[in-house]
Amino acid sequence: MAPDVATRPFARLPRAQWKAREEAHVARADALTASHRTRAARGEKHPVWDFLFTYYSYKPAVLRRWHPGPGVELGDAGEERAGWRWYVAGPTHGSVTVDRAAFEAARPQLVRLVETILRRTASRPGQFGCFGLHEWAMVYRQDERRHPQPLRLGSEGTDAVVEGHDLRCTHVDAFRFFTPEAAPRNRERLSRLDQPDREQPGCLHAGMDVYKWAVKLGPLVPGELLLDAFELARDIRRLDMEASPYDLADWGFSPVAIETPEGKAEYVRRQRAFAERANALRAQILVAWRGAPASALGGEALSGARQE
Description:
Protein name: 3-methyladenine DNA glycosylase
Number of domains: 1
Distance between the termini: 34 Å
Number of strands: 4
Number of helices: 14
Structural class: mainly alpha
């Protein structure tokens, strides 16, 4: 078992080294959010990418703030970061470190929840038979005029796809948007209380949520991992909408027609790749935060992955 971060010797970063990492982080964050910031300044909406800043209600400024993570001493940073919350003076004069103990003491329920979800999700075999039907269930038996985008197959065609498949959603934050007629069709009734017992790495929304958990952990997650999690959420969001019932051709998105064998195969192929990326990030976040051994996560979970 790897030693807990709190008991390991500090890794010291000289000022020039950590400033270079910080500057590279800010430049990368700005590049990732440039299009959104331009649209927001013009008052323009985007049906796919706005989700990353509305459902996940974190402003681009959150992505710009770089943290080294726990157990890292920033040399000659005392004056610059003395006023930053969750930082404390380091063992070397003029240095600072992330105060992991204070953060965890202030938010015990949050850190327990996040650690539980990250560990349990990664420990389970991935399920790859949902085919993104959660998006279809959100518009099942609704009048077409109520939809924010036109339906690729129309209302009747969309309903027929739902009725011709087994709904296997495992993510409560997708399930809660099912229409009243669709919810009883799901294999299980999902609730917030049983979320830690239902999350599994094949779920696209669980993969996107790695970004949410990284933000909630704040300074406990190194900035580079935060941006990796955002990039994963962005890439998953694309598939989520390409496999949805919406016609997004005018926005430059080609459909993954999950109502066909070819579409199902493409969806599962990409879903598996996202599951691997998400589990790798879960492991990296836990290693940086808690000092958990990387071998405790990831490989075994995906080796037993199943498509039902």
